[in-house]
């Protein structure tokens, strides 16, 4: 199984999702190919946002991903592609090559604790609580993905 997490800049939400998902796989002795990518290339080659990395460490995760933009090939190579919000989903749908649209998923549809969540809000222009919310929502969604797609 190959899973790709996608957000706008690939420096906050999707690299956080990748790190959480990889850790959960490791804890459960499961294997899958996991990566993340951005819809925009503004931050290509950059480490994840220092605030996101700091919150990650406090919660027991390490983000090592370097930002990269999504490619046409990604839509073919990955089995499931997760967007963080409605804007991400619109961009993914408009860029998905024909026959790959069925791989696209809104990540919050996998939340079980935060059932009413309909997006992982962009934390970039906000404060600390936004980064904590990202981790809360992504932990919940990653559990749901493992339960419904991997086991
Ligand atoms: P992300 O957050 O999509 O979660 O990585 C953002 C990072 C940077 C920008 C927007 C969102 N930006 O506009 O630079």
What does this structure look like?
The chain is of the alpha/beta class and 151 residues long. The protein has a single domain, classed as Rossmann fold (3-Layer(aba) Sandwich), CATH 3.40.50.2300. 42% of the residues lie in helices and 13% in strands. The chain has helices at residues 13-27, 50-58, 72-77, 86-95, 128-150, and strands spanning 2-7, 33-38, 80-83, 104-106. Helix 1 crosses helix 5 and helix 2 (50-58) packs across helix 5. The longest helix has 23 residues, at 128-150. The site of 4-nitrophenyl phosphate has 10 residues, from loops.
Q: What attributes characterize this protein structure?
A:
alpha/beta; 151 residues; 4-stranded parallel sheet; 5 helices; binds 4-nitrophenyl phosphate; Rossmann fold
